């Protein structure tokens, strides 16, 4: 049993050197797991460096994102996510309010997922985030490069989850079975500068928690991401070149019975330059049931959430934040 303690009040987000997560020595992997354990019980956000993904690959993915968003609106609209049964493709400006019930986010996006055989039952059933990827006809090379980036991020998410398993006193391969046919989504986001003459700053991405297991975010050097600490204050997640911002998602919070925190965060692009970010979401297999880990519940601290499948949980969050706009056209 891992005893529960309430979170402390983080003022900054730690930078974790991830190099030892790849070490053949278990003690070194455990040392990284312990760092992740501490911060996951607190603010649930941290940076990783020495993660093994070449910076040149990240930089060129940003270049592709800029090229994509610079396409004429008609080209982007031709692959609107409402045309994809799985919800992949282009997210038009204002389509989502991540802070449910608030004004729409000042952002546009593009997202794609796991390359799965079109005759896989999940794809045939039209399940959320399986197959039906839409790519713009006007950008040859975009898909191939984005797939290379995706493969690197997916591999890193496996390593991260093996260390997280260790941090929860589980076997390191605990999550592997549910990562084989995953909901794993690469998103690219474009936050335009505030409109000229705007009275109030508009939120780029409203306050929200991420829904899945873990998120790995690359951000450019503009800044604007903020994370809420246990005192309810917003702390800045300033850009650090060469890092990914990692955060714990709702499904891990539920699995760990609130031991680990899926924390609120938001983006405010107040500047005069556009901001781009590349969040990768590893959410696991839709069929998997998330129920309190044995090490995280006891008679004194019973399970706080009813078991739910990953697919059902994500379906609910999409409906809440996109509303009717998520319906396929
Ligand atoms: O753009 C960012 O920095 C964060 C985006 C985000 O939080 C999300 O897409 O869930
Ligand atoms: Fe997020």
TrEMBL record:
EC number: 1.13.12.19, 1.14.20.7
Cofactor requirements of the protein: Fe(2+)
InterPro entries: DIOX_N (IPR026992), IPNS-like_FE2OG_OXY (IPR044861), IPNS-like_sf (IPR027443), Iron_ascorbate_oxido_reductase (IPR050231), Oxoglu/Fe-dep_dioxygenase_dom (IPR005123)
Domain Fe2OG dioxygenase: 181-284
Pathway(s) of this molecule: Alkene biosynthesis; ethylene biosynthesis via 2-oxoglutarate
PROSITE patterns in the cross-refs: FE2OG_OXY (PS51471)
Domain of life: Bacteria
UniProt KW keywords: Ethylene biosynthesis, Iron, Metal-binding, Oxidoreductase
Signal sequence bounds: none
A Pfam family per the record: DIOX_N
Reactions accelerated catalytically: L-arginine + 2-oxoglutarate + O2 = guanidine + L-glutamate 5-semialdehyde + succinate + CO2; 2-oxoglutarate + O2 + 2 H(+) = ethene + 3 CO2 + H2O
EC top class, as a word: oxidoreductase
Protein family: Belongs to the iron/ascorbate-dependent oxidoreductase family.
Protein name: 2-oxoglutarate-dependent ethylene/succinate-forming enzyme
Organism: Herbaspirillum robiniae
Lineage of source species: Bacteria, Pseudomonadati, Pseudomonadota, Betaproteobacteria, Burkholderiales
């Amino acid at each position: 049993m891992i005893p529960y303690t309430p979170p402390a009040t983080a003022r900054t987000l730690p930078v974790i050197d991830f190099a030892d997560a790849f070490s053949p020595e278990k003690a070194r992997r455990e040392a990284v797991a312990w760092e992740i354990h501490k911060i996951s019980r607190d603010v649930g956000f941290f940076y990783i460096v020495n993660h093994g993904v070449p910076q040149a690959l990240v930089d060129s993915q940003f270049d592709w994102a800029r090229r994509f968003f610079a396409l004429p609106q008609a080209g982007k609209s031709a692959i609107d996510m409402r045309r994809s049964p799985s919800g992949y493709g282009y997210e038009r400006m204002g389509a989502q309010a991540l802070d449910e019930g608030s004004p729409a986010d000042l952002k546009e996006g593009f997202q794609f997922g796991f390359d799965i055989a079109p005759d896989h039952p999940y794809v045939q059933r039209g399940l959320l985030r399986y197959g039906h990827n839409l790519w713009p006809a006007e950008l040859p090379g975009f898909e191939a490069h984005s797939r290379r980036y995706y493969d690197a991020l997916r591999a890193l998410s496996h390593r991260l989850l093996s260390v997280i398993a260790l941090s929860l006193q589980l076997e390191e391969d605990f999550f592997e079975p549910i990562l084989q046919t995953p909901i794993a989504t690469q998103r690219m986001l474009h936050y335009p500068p505030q409109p000229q003459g705007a009275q109030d700053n508009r939120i780029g991405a409203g306050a929200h928690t991420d829904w899945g297991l873990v998120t790995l975010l690359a951000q450019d050097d503009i800044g604007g991401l903020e994370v809420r600490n246990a005192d309810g204050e917003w702390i800045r997640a300033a850009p650090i070149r060469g890092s990914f911002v990692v955060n714990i998602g709702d499904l891990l919070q539920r699995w760990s019975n609130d031991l680990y925190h899926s924390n609120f965060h938001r983006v405010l692009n107040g500047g005069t330059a556009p901001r781009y970010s590349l969040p990768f979401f590893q959410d696991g297999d839709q069929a998997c049931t998330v129920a309190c880990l044995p090490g995280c519940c006891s008679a004194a601290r019973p399970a706080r959430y009813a078991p739910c499948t990953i697919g059902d949980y994500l379906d609910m969050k999409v409906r809440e934040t996109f509303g009717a706009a998520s319906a396929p056209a």
